[in-house]
Design brief:
With 517 residues, this protein is α+β, with helices and mostly antiparallel strands. The chain contains 18 helices and 17 strands. It binds adenosine-5'-diphosphate (ADP). Residues 304-517 form the Histidine kinase domain.
């Protein structure tokens, strides 16, 4: 007996024997390690009580099965010393003597707690993933890219180093790869988003049908991201629905190493059509506001504009009467008359130009970006302002850096910003009775940007200059408080920024930054 115990002590598995009543007869070393209970403390104790053996089925039933069949195996939970729970894979065998009397029950047990916990965690994570996949408001597509990968790999051997440029230049090849990418799994949300009712309207099909030509750049980005082992990609694009419509989506690709190994791309799509529609509506409202503000500004500047137009008209009248005086001479000096006629033409053009600019300001049309000289826009805005500023005795200073790069912008909108800032400054200075009112326009370049500064020496902007950009903020009796918010929305639509600060000494300083062409 003693000898056998010694051998059992060499075994890694827990081996415990018990009598017909469940009292422990032997307890090997692996059992001491597994349960944290010394042999001396275990011998003679009731095994199931000592270890709080538990199973879904009552232990008495398990014992009954054991006695009936001679053996039992399965998973049990027990509590080791110190209360640590253990999950065990056990085998029980009944040993009988020649007369069939039960000699003892032999139990071998393996600790599977760690494996079970890991399995549970994995199952839980799979369950969570499934839940997410099925129930999220995000459409998910699993796309099998193995075929596409096979098409892209030879490109490297052909010496293609810039995959991005290559795919852009070879759209037929690109289109061909789409026919080799197949939709695997997809969730109900994706089905709904793409206007399908049955899985097989999408599943198993190539992605080509869902990808309009104008969205190919996003597909290229996704391929390049895969090939260059970027972990994910987030962008926006527009895809085809099965019912012939289209859907604007926030498009995310997860390129985890696991997915890469499986040749699968997990694509998440969020429907942003509503947001896109709202953005377009907002742009229209902004454009209408900007238009209304321009028209009301022109109203304020009528005197200034009338004066600008009157000047060339008066000059035309003067040149005209001078010409007719020359012609009534007996021997008219035709050169003199020709010179006057040329001046009349030039002045008429000038008047025409001014009217064209006023009309452009009053017109309602889609903004159009062209490369503009910031300095020229400042000069044109001053055309609108010159008379008004003169009337208020505001001195104008120009600090315009020559030879600046152009900025891609809408001329009328940019003029509107400048006129607005200048009119605000002139009004603030008049209101505050600023002595020697002064307005300075500065242009300069700064890195990739152009900077325009409009400064005055008026009362300044108080403690919270940023508040001026809030809609309907005004300190004027007849003010609308929309001038600066419109300026900001115009500048931001141009990819720029506008900041209001108090001047170093006094007055206000508005700094507009715009991207250079
Ligand atoms: P409104 O001109 O209709 O009041 P704005 O949005 O153009 O609307 O201007 C908001 C407010 O900002 C003005 O009422 C004025 O109090 C303040 N403000 C704007 N420019 C200046 C400036 N240069 N100096 C002082 N205050 C200014």
């Amino acid at each position: 007996m003693g000898r056998r115990t010694d051998i059992l002590d060499l075994v890694h598995e827990s081996v415990v024997t018990r009598d017909a009543w469940g009292h422990v007869l032997s307890w090997n070393r692996a059992s001491e390690a597994l349960y944290g209970i010394a042999r001396a403390d275990a011998l003679g104790r009731k095994l199931h009580t000592l270890l709080a053996t538990a199973h879904d089925t009552p232990i008495a039933d398990l014992e009954a099965q054991l006695h009936a069949r001679g053996s039992w195996e399965g998973e049990l939970t027990r509590t080791a010393a110190g209360g640590a729970p253990r999950i065990l894979d056990v085998r029980w065998t009944v040993e009988r003597d020649a007369e069939g009397r039960l000699v003892r029950i032999i139990e071998t047990a393996r600790d599977i707690t760690a494996r079970k916990t890991a399995e549970d965690a994995l199952r839980m994570s799979e369950y969570r993933y499934r839940n997410m996949f099925q129930a999220m408001a995000v459409g998910f597509w699993e796309v099998d890219f193995t075929g596409v990968g096979r098409m892209l790999i030879p490109l490297r051997d052909q010496g293609v180093t810039d995959l991005h440029a290559h795919l852009h230049a070879n759209r037929d090849f690109l289109r061909d790869t789409m026919h080799h990418a197949f939709v695997g799994d997809l969730n109900p949300k994706a089905l709904e988003m793409f206007g399908a009712t049955e899985m097989d309207q999408i599943q198993g099909r190539s992605i080509a049908a869902f990808w309009p030509r104008e969205s190919e750049p996003v597909y290229i980005e996704a391929l390049v991201a895969t090939m260059t082992r970027q972990p994910w990609l987030v962008t926006e694009t527009r895809l085809n629905r099965v019912d012939g419509g289209q859907v604007d989506v926030l498009f995310t690709v997860s390129l985890s190493p696991e997915n890469r190994k499986r040749g699968v791309m997990l694509i998440g799509v969020v429907d942003i059509s509503a947001r896109k529609g709202a953005e377009a509506a907002l742009r229209r409202v902004q454009a209408e506001f900007a238009h209304a503000a321009r028209v009301s500004m022109l109203g304020e500047l009528t005197a200034s504009i009338a004066h600008e137009v009157n000047q060339p008209l008066a000059a035309i009248a003067t040149s005209g009467s001078a010409a007719s005086r020359w012609l009534s001479n007996d021997d008219p000096d035709l050169d003199e008359v020709r010179g006057l006629a040329e001046r009349i033409v030039a002045d008429a053009r000038r008047a025409g130009d001014i009217i064209a600019r006023v009309r452009a300001m009053a017109e309602r049309r889609e903004p159009a970006r062209i490369a503009l000289s910031l300095n020229a826009v400042v000069e044109e805005a001053l055309m609108f302002l010159a008379h008004d500023l003169q009337g208020r005795q505001v001195a104008v200073e120009r600090c315009l850096t020559p030879d600046l790069r152009d900025t891609p912008a809408d001329r009328t909108q940019l003029q509107q910003v400048l006129v607005n800032l200048a009119v605000n400054a002139a009004q603030a200075m008049a209101e505050a009775g600023t002595p020697d009112p002064h307005l300075r326009f500065t242009t300069r370049s700064q890195g990739d940007c152009l900077v325009l500064v409009v400064e005055d020496n008026g009362p300044g902007l108080g403690d919270t200059p940023d508040a001026l950009f809030e809609s309907f903020y005004t300190t004027k009796a007849s003010g609308m408080g929309m001038g600066l918010p419109i300026c900001r929305s115009i500048v931001e639509a141009h990819g720029g920024t506008i900041v209001a600060r108090n001047g170093d000494d006094r007055g206000a300083r508005f700094t507009v930054t715009l991207p250079a062409a």
